[in-house]
Amino acid sequence: MGMNINRSCAAKQLTMKKQQGLVLVLVTATMMLIVGIGAFAVDINHALFNRTRLQNTVDTAALAAAVVVSNGGTTGEAEAIVSSTLTEMASASGNTSMDFSSSSLIVQFSNSPGTFPDASYSSTDDTYVRVSITGYELENFFALMFGVEKEIAASAVAGPSAPFTLACNLVPMAVCSGDDTGTNGYNAGQIYGLKLADQSQSSMGSGNFQLLDFGSGAATVREALAGGFEECVDTINTVQTKPGGTVGPVGQGLNTRLNDYGGGGVSADDYPPDVFIREPVKAATIDNNGDVKYQDTSGAGGSPWGYSDYEAELPDCTGVSGCMIENGGRYNRRILPVPIVDCSTATGGTNTFNVEAIGCFFLLQKAPTNNSGKQAVFGEFIEDCTVANGTFGNTPPPGDPEGPYRIVLYKDPLGDSS
User: Fold this and answer.
1) Residue 19 C-beta-side C-alpha neighbours within 13 Å
2) CA distance linking residue 162 with residue 190, whole number of Å
3) Is the peptide bond before 315 cis (omega within 30 degrees of 0)?
4) CA-closest candidate to residue 378, choices 167, 169, 170, 175
5) Which of 152-161, 163-172, 208-217 has the lowest mean pLDDT?
6) pLDDT of the residue at 117
7) Would the pLDDT of 210 be above 60?
C-alpha cells in the first residue's frame, strides 16, 4: 500500500515537470513572436513614415515642374527643376537621411492628366507632368530577419486646373497685367495705383479710371467698395469697366475699412473697420507720369511701412496705436481682392476685359474723396489669391485653359499615389 502511494506521487511529479517544461516552451515561443512582431513593426512604421515623406517630395517636384511649363518654360527646364527640388528637399532640416542615388527617377509630359506616356504630346497645348521615383531603398532594422527588403516608390501628376467659374468678395476695381517680373506683372511688397484719378495714366482706355461695373449708381459703388459685394460672380472670365471717376463714393466706401465714415450713409454697424487701421507716416503719392512715390520710413528697421508691419502686429495688437481689436475691428478688411485683367484690347468708354488672375492688395492708406491733387487709391501687392477667391471646375479643358487657373495635383493613372 505504501509503495503504491509513492509510485503515484512520483508519477504526478513527473507529469508536473513535463507540464512546466511545455509551459516554458510556449512562453518562450510567445515571447519570441511578440519580440518579432514588435521588431517588424519598427520597420513598418519607418517605411510608412518615409513613404509619406517621399510622396510629399514627389508632389512638390511635380507641382514645381508644372509651374515652370505653365510659365512658358521648356520640358528640359521642368526636368531640371524636378532634380533641384529633390536635392533641396533632401538637404532640408530633418531630411538628411533622404538619398535618391539608388532610386530611379522618371519625368513624363502629357496633354492629358490621364494619359502617360503620351505619344502625341505637344508643348503648345496644356502640359501635365508626371514624376515617378521607384526603387527607393530604406535602411533595414529587423525586416531582413523575415526575408523582407524595404523598398518604396511614389509618383505624382500635376498640371493646370479648369478655369475658375466663380469669383467671390471682389472689389469693383481692376488693374491691367503689368510688365514687372512678378505675378502677372506685379511684385510682392510693391505699391501700385488701384484706382486712378487721371485717366491718361490707365491702360483701360479713355474715360476709364480702373473701376468695374458691379451695378449702376454711386451707392452701389460705395457699398461694394465698403465690402457689400459679398456674393460670387458666375463665369468671371471677363469683367466690364465702369467709365468715370466716381471719386467721392470710392473714398467713402474704401475708407470704412480704415474707420473713416465721413459721408455716404455707410456705418460701422454694416461695414466695420479693419482690426488695425494704422497708416504710413508719409503717404504714398503718384506723379504726372503715373509713377508711384513712396518714401515712408516708419516701418520696421526704418523700412517703408506696409503689409509686413501690419502682419507683425496681428493677431493681437492690443495696446498698439491704431488697434481696433476692442472696438469692433475685423480681420483682413484691408485686403482687397482685385481682378488683374488683360487690357490689350482697350478702346474708349466701356470695355470688356479677360481676367487673368485675382490679386490681393493691402489697402495702404485712405482713399481720396475728391479730385484735389489727383491722387490714387494705393495698394501693396501681396500675392495672387485666385485660389482663395475663386471656385474652379473639376474637369481640365482641352487645349489651353481660358481664364485664370491654378496648378493642382491629379490622381496618377498609373498608380494610387496622388
Assistant:
1) 6
2) 30
3) yes
4) 175
5) 163-172
6) 92
7) yes
The number of CA neighbours under 13 Å toward the Cβ of 243 is 11
Mean pLDDT (the chain, rounded): 83
- Parallel, antiparallel or unpaired: strands 164-168 and 151-160: unpaired
What nine digits make up the cell of 360? 490681393
- How far apart, in whole angstroms, are the C-alpha atoms of residue 218 and residue 169? 19
pTM: 0.63
Q: How far apart are CA 42 and CA 143, in angstroms?
A: 9
Residue among 284, 277, 362, 282 nearest 321 (CA)? 277
Give every CB contact of residue 365 below 8 A, 6+ residues apart in sequence: 258, 279, 280, 283, 284, 378
Cell numbers representing residue 118 in the block: 503620351
Return the exposure string of 236-266: e unless at least 16 CB atoms fall within 10 Å of the residue's CB, then b: beebebbbebbbbbbbbbbbbbbbbbeebeb
Enter the C-alpha cell of residue 268.
Answer: 460701422
Query: What does the block give as the cell for 227?
Result: 465690402
pLDDT at 23 over 90: no
Amino acid at 259: N
Residue by residue, what is the 3-state secondary structure of the chain?
CHHHHHHHHHHHHHHHHHHHHHHHHHHHHHHHHHHHHHHHHHHHHHHHHHHHHHHHHHHHHHHHHHHHHHCCCCHHHHHHHHHHHHHHHHHCCCCCCCCCCCCEEEEEEECCCCCCCCCCCCCCCCCEEEEEEEEEECCCCCHHHHCCCCEEEEEEEEEECCCEEEEECCCCECEECCCCCCECCECCCCEEEEECCCHHHCCCCCCCCCEECCCCCHHHHHHHHHHHCCCEEECCCEEEECCCCCHHHHHHHHHHHHCCCCCCCCCCCCCCCECECCCCCCCCEECCCCCEECCCCCCHHHCCCCHHHHHHHCCCCCCCCCECHHHCCECCCCEEEEEEEECCCCCCCCCEEEEEEEEEEEECCCCCCCCCCCCCEEEEEEEECHHHHEEECCCCCCCCCCCCCCEEEECCCCCCCC
For residue 73 the three cell numbers come to 518654360
In angstroms, rounded to a whole number, what is the distance separating the alpha carbons of residues 257 and 260? 7
CB 63 within 8 A of CB 108: no
Instruction: State the average pLDDT over residues 165-173.
Output: 77
Q: Which residue has the cell 507540464?
A: 19
The three grid cell numbers given for residue 204, joined into one nine-digit string: 483701360
